[in-house]
Design brief:
mainly alpha; elongated
């Protein structure tokens, strides 16, 4: 190999190394943002808990108090969804298609969940300040519950989409786009980056330590999928070892 070709090869390798480092840094930063975003969405579990209390409340006074609590939790839920969306907004312009697609999927799911919560708020508002409060005997509970069930189907579907998308985006942890289009034998992250991300997940989602389980909330499952992916392959600075 002549000196010119050797110099070009060295320059190319250095360029690719710098690109890989920058790409890995973007990936690490995105996953930290993703975990924070999911942690805000996780707070919607409080809405679900308030809904159960409303269903189990007996008598008009208890129902109205549970309804008031539900409306308060819905307001908080809407605010948390907006925070969750804002954290992913910048990643819509990412050059990494996996990151970009995940940001799009989650923002769309969060938007649908917000619309659903707004519809649910109006329904509970009707209970609190409308017919049920004034004339409970004229309130059509069956129709109201049917509307609730319809909303629940769409909400559950949104959680499914979040779970699936968070599984798909884990490929960004070891696919060096655009430098290669096949899986690497190592994570793109260093051991320190990997450990910091696992620690972040464990703090925000301690329930995810057990991995993906049947019956667990899907938001916990989404975090568990990311955590499991981080343990599948060794970090790029510890080639040939196993993830913890």
């Amino acid at each position: 190999m002549n000196k010119k070709r050797a110099a070009l090869l060295i320059a190319l390798l250095c360029t690719n190394s710098l690109q890989a480092t920058a790409f890995a840094s973007e990936t690490s930063d995105y996953f930290h943002q993703l975990i924070i975003s999911l942690s805000f969405a996780k707070k919607l579990e409080l809405v679900k808990a308030a809904q159960e209390k409303f269903k189990n409340a007996e008598g008009s006074d208890q129902k109205l108090q549970a309804c008031s609590n539900m409306m308060m939790e819905i307001r908080f839920g809407i605010k948390n969804l907006e925070k969750a969306k804002s954290l992913l907004q910048d990643s819509l312009g990412s050059e990494n298609p996996m990151i970009r697609s995940n940001a799009q999927d989650l923002i769309a799911a969060y938007s649908f969940l917000r619309e659903s919560l707004e519809s649910e708020f109006k329904m509970f508002q009707e209970v609190y300040s409308g017919k049920y409060k004034e004339h409970p005997e004229t309130f059509d509970v069956g129709q109201w519950m049917s509307q609730q069930s319809q909303l629940a189907v769409g909400i559950d579907d949104s959680w499914d989409k979040i779970l699936v998308s968070c599984g798909q985006v884990t490929y960004a942890l070891w696919v060096e786009y655009p430098l290669r289009d096949t899986k690497s034998e190592n994570l793109l992250l260093t051991s320190q980056e990997r450990d910091e991300l696992i620690h972040h997940i464990d703090e925000a989602f301690p329930e995810a330590k057990v991995g993906l389980r049947n019956g667990q909330p899907k938001i916990i499952g989404a975090a568990a999928r990311i955590r499991e992916a981080l343990n599948k392959l060794p970090p790029r600075d510890i080639a040939g070892t196993q993830g913890r």
